[in-house]
Amino acid sequence: MDHATDVLQDVAPQLRALRRRRGLTLEGAAQRAGLSPAHLSRLETGNRQPSLPMLLSLSRIYGTTVSELLGETPPERDPIVRAGRSEPVEADGWIYRQAGGAGRAMQCLRVHIPFATSTDIVRVHPGEEWIHVLEGRVRLALGDAVHVLDPGDSAHYDSLTPHRVGAATQAGAELLFVHTLIQSPVAELCLGNGTPHSR
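and the corresponding structure tokens:
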């Protein structure tokens, strides 16, 4: 994972540049992402590595994609994503690969998720999410309902519904994950500093 670590460290200056381009203060961006200003400052200086949920949250706030944050934007929009072109990135036990092109209205990822625990963060944000289980079993909490998905099962839901995703099998689970990218200022209204965190 040395390459993945290097990539995550290289994202620090990009995070600061994108925040400033959006005209957001450190405090304003941190509040929308559910982080403390000190934590976001450490991410921007490279003193702390961002997790996948943090990258997804910040990319949504800054109107970009995780692949662009990681510098993976191709020179031309290629409709084909080859298996060998996407390096795995690990963050907080989540391992993911880009499965879609950059600059689209949706972001597509292939994700290995760890076993679900009671400390997993409940998330809420504008848009939609779609997951499809490839391997293992997935526990999906949507509001007060909890669903267990087997390989081949899918879920498509409004992500303003408080949700939490984790593996229901000790070895983790593999899934395809697609979410819409909300790039308007209206999206920021739901990215406050309450218990739910934007993904």
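(Above: one complete record from the training split.) Residues 45 and 187 are 26 Å apart (CA to CA).
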